[in-house]
Amino acid sequence: MPSLSEPDFVARREVLRLIAAGAAASLAGCSKPDQPIVPAVEDKDGDRAGRIRRYATTTMLAGYGRGATALVVDGRPIKLEGSAMHPASLGATDLFTETAILDLYDPQRLRAPAGPAGIAGWPMLERALISRLAGSNGEGTVLLTGRVTSPSLLARIAEARARMPGLRHIRSEAIDDDAEREGARLAFGRPLTMRSRLAEADVLVLLDADPLGPGPDQVAFARAWADRRRASGKPQRTYVLEPSPTQSGICADRRIALHPALVVNALLAVAASLGTGTSGAVDLPPDAAAFVASVIRDLRGAQGRAVVMVGRGQPPEVHALAAWVNQRLHAPIDWIDPVDPDLSSHVESLASLAHDMADGRVSTLMVLDANPVLHAPPSWHFAEALGRVPLSISFSAFPDETAMATRWRAPLAHSLESWGDACGPDGTASLIQPMVKPLFGGRSALAALAMLDPAGPRPNDHDRVRRQWNATDDGHWRDLLVAGVVDGTAATPVSPGDARLVMPAPSRASAAMIVTLPPSPTLWDGRGATNAWAQECPDPVTRQVWGAALRISPGDARRLGVGDEDIVVFAGLSAPVKIVEGQAEGVATLPLGHARTAGGPIATAPGTLGPGTDAYRLRGSRGGWLSGEVTLVPTGAKAHTPRNQKDFALDGEAASLYPVLAPGEAMPKPPSRATLLGAGPERPPDTPQWAMVIDTSACIGCNACVVACQAENNIPAIGPEQIGKGRDMHWLRVDRYEHEHGGGYQPVPCMQCETAPCEPVCPVEAPVHSAEGLNLQVYNRCIGTRTCQANCPYKVRRFNFLDYAGADLWGDLDPAPVTAQRNPEVTVRARGVMEKCTYCVQRIETAKHGADATGEALVTPVTACQAACPTQAIHFGNLADPASDVAQLRRDPRHYALLEELGTRPRTTYLAKVRDAGEGEGEA
Amino acid sequence: MSDAARWLLPSMFDHKAITDAIAGPLVEGKAGKRWWIAVLISLAVTGIGVIATGISFAYGPGMWGNNSAVVWGFPIANYVWWIGIGNAGTLISALLLLTRQKWRNAINRFAEAMTILAVSIAGLFPIIHLGRPMYFYWMAPYPNTMGLWPQWRSALVWDFWAILSYLLFSLIFFYLGLIPDLATLRDREGPSHWRRIWGAFALGWQGTPAQWRSHQRLQRVMAVIATPLVCSVHSIVGLDFAASLMPGWTESVFPPYFVVGAYFSGFAMVVLLALVIRSALGLEAMIRPAHLDACAKMLLAAGSVMLLSYGSEWMSALWTGEAADLRFLRFSFTGTYSGLTYGMILGNCLLPQLFWSPALRRSVPVLVIVSAGVLFGMYFERILIICNTLSIGYEPAAWTLYVPTLVDFAILLGTGGLFVFAFLLLSRVIPLVPMYEIRELAEVAKGEVR
Fold first, then answer.
1. Between residues 727 and 746 of chain A, which touch chain B (CB distance below 8 Å)?
2. Which CATH class is domain A514-638?
3. Could you report the predicted ipTM of this complex, rounded to two decimals?
4. Alpha-carbon distances, residue A382 vs A352, A366, A372, A406 (angstroms)
C-alpha cells in the first residue's frame, strides 16, 4: 500500500492541490457530470428534491455491455435496474448489475494514482508516461485489456496504433471463450459465435454447460428458457450432464453427474445416433449410458426443436462436434460473427505477453481494467515477468493483485462515472451515461488511453462517444441517450455453411482426482470479490457466503474420511470440503475468484478462507478450466464455512414445502382445517390488496432478486462472522430444496399473511396490518422482543443484532461513502430493531402518489425483486382486481401457499415447480 | 413424638431461646469470616454478570448466541428459570398456610425472600433481552402524546403485568409477615441505628391481641389471593410460548405444566437454601430433618408430575401425527440437543424417584444432589423449549442451531452471584426464620408434649 507517511515524493504544491481537491470533492458530494445527461423519461418535476429519475446506461460483465437503468435521486445513483430495450437485459438484471451500484461507492476504490514512491498526482503519472513515450513509435509498449466491445474504445485504440504502430493491444479475459471460438473454427473454418434460441427448444441438452448460470448471457438465456417452459402445449425438457451441480443442473428435468472427461463420450453417442457413421458404443457408466439413450430418444423426435450446448470447459473438438450435431438436428441456433473483434486466443496472447515481459521485450505496459496477475496460470510467473517491465501502470477500480504488482496504479472510473459505449453478447450497442462525476477522482478507460497516446487529439470522452455514433444533431444524440440502446446494431445471423464433422477421440476418466474450475456465480472471475453484497450473496448450489469450499461427492468424502468443513490439501492448496449431492465421483470443484490476496479488506476479509483456496492456482500452463490430477489429503483441521442454508433435503411430509408436479398435473386441494386465527382482516372496498405469486418453476436461483432487494431497501452486509453465527439480513432468501420428486429454488420473502402470527404477539404492536393487506413493521415502535420472528413459521423476519447499518466491514477505511447509496425512501434501521420485506412499500406509495397527483388510475408498482428477476418468476399486483396478473395466477392449477395448513393465509403464494421426467427415468 | 414436636427440638420450646437463636446472628453479632468470603465471591461473580450485561447494552444482543431462527436464547431461558424459582416461596407461605401445614413456619421466611430476589432477577431479563432495552416501558400503558397502547393480545404484555403484580404482591406479603419480627428486633438490645430502622419498618407494632388478630386475618386473606396469583404468573409464562403456532409450543398443557415445573425448581432451591441456612446460622433445632423430608416428598410428587407432563407432550405429538411435531420429537431425542433432553429427564424425573426411600429423603448429600439435579434439569428444560422449537421450525431452509456465547454464560452466572449476594445481605438484617411463628409452633408443641 502507498503510505501517506512518505510525502516527500509529492511536491508541496501537489499536496495542497490534493487537499483542496479532496475538500472540494467532499463538499460537492455527488456532483453532476460536466456534460448534460438525459433521463429516460422526461418528467417536469424530475429535478424536485427526493424524486427518483431514471437514466439509460450500461453495465459491464466480461467486456460485454448489458443495458441498464440507473435510478438517481438528487444526483445520487442509488440503484440499477434493467433496460427493457436491451436484449441482454430485457428489463431484468443479474447479480452483477445489481452489485455494481455498491462498487461505485466502495471505500476500497483507488483514490489517486500511486507510483513507486507512493501517492502521486495525475500530472506525475502523465509526466512519467510522456517521458517514455514522447516521440516513440510505440515499440515495446503494450496495452493489456480484458475483452473490449466498446466501439469508441476500439476506435481510440486503433487511432493510437495508427500513430504508434509498435503499440500492441493484447486482450485477455479471465473467463475466456477460446474453446467455443476454436470449436466453431474447426466446424466452419471461421470463428463464429453460437446463439441458441432457447425459446424454441423443446429439448435442451446441456453437456457440462450452464446457460442458466452466471455470465453475460444469463438473463437472455434464462428468459428464453423460462418463456419456453411457460408456454402451453408440449412441455420442454432439459437434460443436463455435468460434473458438479450448477443452476442449470438444479433446474433441469433430468440431470446426471458425469466426469468432465466423459462428456465427449456422451456427445459421441448422441452424434453416432445422428449418423456419424461410427458406432455409438462408447465408454460410459451404465447409468450415464441409459441417460444418453433417453436423450437420443428425445432428440430423435425433436428435429428443429432441440439444442445441444457444450460448456466452456470442454475442448474445441467437442464444441465442433456439437456444432455438427446441432446442424443435424436443425437446432434453433443463430451463428453470428464474434462481437469481440479480436480473434486471437485469450490464453495464448496473454502467454506471449508473459513471455515477452520475461524476456525484457516490453518497456511500457498499461493494464486497463484487467487482473492478469490473479488469473494467469501460476506456471507463467506473470507477476515476476511484470516486475521486469520498466514502466507498468494498472488502471483499476480497486487495489487488485495486478495493481499491486505494477509500478504505477491509477484509479479507473466506474461506468456510472464515465461516458462510453459497449456491445452486448449479441452485438447490440448501448451507451454508457455517467450519473456522477468520478467520486474518487478516477479516469475513464478512454481518458486512460489518452495518456498512453499523449500526442493524439484530446476531445473529451463525451465528444468522442458522440462522434462515434455520428450524433451531430442534438436531437439525435438526445434520443440515443434516452434509449441507451442503439437500434439496429444487433449482429445479423450469418449462414455458417455445412459443419465439418470433427470426431474427437473418446476419452476415459482418470483414476486420480481432478478439479473443475467454474466461474463463481457470485464473484464471476473474482471481480465481485471486492463487493460486500456479492460476497454475502449465497452460492446457488452450496449456499455458502464469503468464500467457497472444495465440492466433492459423498462417495469421495467417504473414501477420504472427510466431512463438511474438513480441510484437505492438494496441489499446494488447502481448502475446506463441502460434500455436494450430485457431484461426479473422482471430480472436485472449486469456483474461481474467491480467496483473493489483494483488492481491499472485503476481498481479503478474514473468513473468506484466504489465498489457500484460490482456484486460479490450479490452472495448467495452457489455461483451461480443469486442474491436473490431484490427490486430496485430509489434514484433520477444520475451517468455518458460513452458509445461509444447511439442509437441502426434504423428506417425508416436508416435501410438501416444495411441491413438484408432472406437466399438466394440478396441485392437490389442501384439506381444510380448523384454525383459531380467524378469517383475516377486513378488505375495505376500493383499496388495492397487494399480493405476490412466485413461479418456482421459473426460478433459476440467480440471486438477482436478493441483491436487488438489498440495494432497494438499504439492507447492510454483515460479514462472514455474523453469517457464521446464523444471522443474516437478506429480506428475501432463495431456498434450495431437493426431494425424491425433484428439486429447485424457492424464493421466500415475507408472506404478508392475512392472519399474521407475528402481529398479535408483539407487546408494543410494532407489526401492524395495512388496509391494503401489507404486514408492516413500525421500526420506531419496535423494542426488539423478537417474539414476532419466534412465532413466524416462515422465519422471514430479520433482526439487527448489532449496529449493522453502521457496521464497518471495510477495515480501516471510512465506510461513509456507502451511505450515499442508500435509498432515501427507506428507513435505515437501528440496532435492536426487527425488519422485514415490505413488498417495497415505498414503491407502492410512490405509485399511489403518482395516481393521486395525476388523477389517473393507479399503475401497479413493480417491486425491486420483481424488476430484477430475469425469468419473470415474481408477479406482484392487486388481488382485488380480478383481471390482475396475481389474481389470475392464484387460479392456476399449480398455485399453492406455503404452509397453507397453518391458516396464516399468506399473500405471497407460489406456483409449483413442473418437472418433466419423461420416460426411462427409472433406468437413469 | 407429637406432630408439632417433629418440627422443633425441645431446646427451642422457650421463647427466649428462639429469639436468641434467630435474632442473635443478625447485625448485633459479628459477621464472621465465612460470610465475608461468601460476600466477596458472590460480589465478584455479580461483577462478571454486570460487565457482561454492560457489554450487551453497549454492543447489542449480537453479543449473545441468538441467531435469525433462534431469536431467543439464554436471556429468556434465564427469565423462565428464575421466575420458576420465584414461584415456590409464595406457594409455601400461602398454600401451606391455608392447608395449615405447621412445617412451613421454619422455612417460609427465607423461601419468600428467595421469591422476591428470584422474581426481581427474573424481571430483569425481559428488559435485558430487548433489542432496545431503553424503551422497555413501552410495554406498560402510560399516557403518551401519540396515544399508543401496548398490544393487549400479546402474551408478553400479560407477562409484564403478571410479573409486576406478583412481585408487588410478594413484597407486601413478605413485609406483612416480617412486621412482628421487626418489632422484636426493635425491642431488643442492639445497634441503635439498626433498631431505629427496624422500628420504623415495624410500623408501631405492639403485639396487642387486636393487632395479632388483624395481622392473622390479613395474612390469611392475602394467602387466598396469593394462591391463584402463583398459578397465574407461571401460566402466563407458559402462554408466552403456547400462544403461538410453532411446533413444540402450541400445547394447551403448557400453563399447568409450567406451574408445576416452577414450584418444582423452587422447592429444589428451598431445599438447598434450607441446608445452607441451617448449618450456617446454626438453626438445626428449627429446621429439622422432618422439614427436609417434607420438601423431598414435594420434589418427588412434582418430579412425577413432570414425568407425566413430558409423557403427555410426547404422546400428543405421536398421536396427532403432525409432521412438524413428530420432527420436533425426533429432534428432541436424537438431535443436537438430545444430551440436554436426557439430562433433563434424569434431573427432573428420575433423580427425585430416589425419594421413595425415607432414608434418602433425610440424607443431606442425596438432597443436595437431587436438588441440584432438579435445578439443572429445569434449566435444560427451559433452554430446550426455546432451542428445539426455534432451531427446527417449519422451514428446513431456516434451520439453525443455537450456540451460547461467553457473554450468555457470564450473564447467567452473574445472576446467580447477585442472588447469593443479596441473600447474604438479607441474612444479616432480617431474621430468615420467622420468630413469632416458631414461638407459635413452640406453644403448640409444648401443649402436645404436655
1. 727-728, 733, 735-737, 746
2. mainly beta
3. 0.92
4. 11, 15, 8, 11
